[in-house]
Write a structure and sequence with these properties.
mainly alpha; disordered C terminus; 13 helices; disordered N terminus
């Protein structure tokens, strides 16, 4: 069942390096996005680039910074509740904000024509169509939680910094993939209709609820941490996951309303058109 989980041992130098690298990576990502947005506006002033998209990207990187830097990052090494807060930020909240920033569309607007065609070919490849399908993305994101918390995998990651960072990468990429498959504004050739995506999102909500309730009750869970921490982490997953998925549903509705073809009302026939048709 549950056992006390030993905290990670960090030296002062190792902790500083662990904070410095994410800060540098996030700063580089922000700089690259702002540069591309400026290039898009300069290349096509009439089309420009939405400041709202830029704000979403800055929000996503801020959420990642909150997760990967103090005080959350050290707490995640010592307390399972801190780990769950980190998981929510990296795997659900930050990916949604980054997806709404439409980074692929920005790349397509700023890359040279030949590079743009290559990127479009990758997006339309069979492998990309499979990976970007909502049900596959659901298995990679929500389905992997059962593997993580109901097997010894989570305990293995707590003793290995490399495994811990791989877990972060999995949370971020799978969360981004699921948010993109459900409500992303970027091109998605294999994306099904709104109803199918709503069903997929409903399954994700139910799966999150079941996993968190099983964790709270101590059923099948394999987490070496005090019971109070596991129950607290389960509550964070339950309520934090609900809020994140409601935000994703709102993004889906907003995207659907934006992309939905508008019916133009019939305008009365002008007299000259009537005479011409006569």
């Amino acid at each position: 069942m549950n056992h006390d989980m030993p905290a990670h041992e960090h030296t002062a130098g190792g902790g500083a390096l662990e904070a410095l690298l994410p800060a540098l990576a996030l700063s580089a990502a922000v700089g690259a996005y702002l540069l591309l947005a400026h290039r898009a506006r300069r290349r096509n002033p009439a089309l420009g680039w939405s400041r709202r998209r830029t704000t979403w990207f800055l929000t996503g990187t801020l959420l990642l910074g909150m997760a990967l830097l103090p005080p959350v990052a050290p707490l995640a090494h010592e307390d399972f509740r801190g780990h769950m807060v980190q998981h929510m930020l990296i795997g659900m909240y930050a990916p949604l904000a980054l997806v709404l920033a439409a980074p692929v569309t920005l790349l397509l607007r700023t890359l040279p024509a030949a590079r743009g065609r290559q990127l479009t070919a990758v997006l339309h490849s069979p492998a990309a169509r499979v990976i970007a399908h909502p049900w596959v993305a659901l298995m990679l994101s929500t389905g992997s939680l059962a593997v993580l918390y109901f097997t010894p995998l989570y305990n293995a990651t707590t003793g290995s910094p490399a495994a811990h960072w791989l877990l972060h990468a999995h949370f971020l990429l799978s969360g981004w993939l699921f948010a993109h498959a459900i409500a992303g504004p970027d091109p998605a050739p294999s994306r099904p209709g709104v109803r199918a995506r709503l069903v997929c999102l409903g399954v994700a909500i139910a799966a999150h609820a079941v996993i968190s309730q099983l964790m709270y009750g101590g059923f099948w869970v394999d987490i070496h941490a005090p019971i109070s921490e596991v129950k607290g982490g389960a509550e964070i997953m339950y309520y934090g996951g609900d809020i994140a998925e409601l935000l994703l549903a709102a993004a889906l509705v907003a995207t659907w309303r934006t992309d939905r073809p508008r019916r133009t009302p019939r305008s009365p026939v002008a007299p000259q058109e009537m005479s011409a048709s006569a």
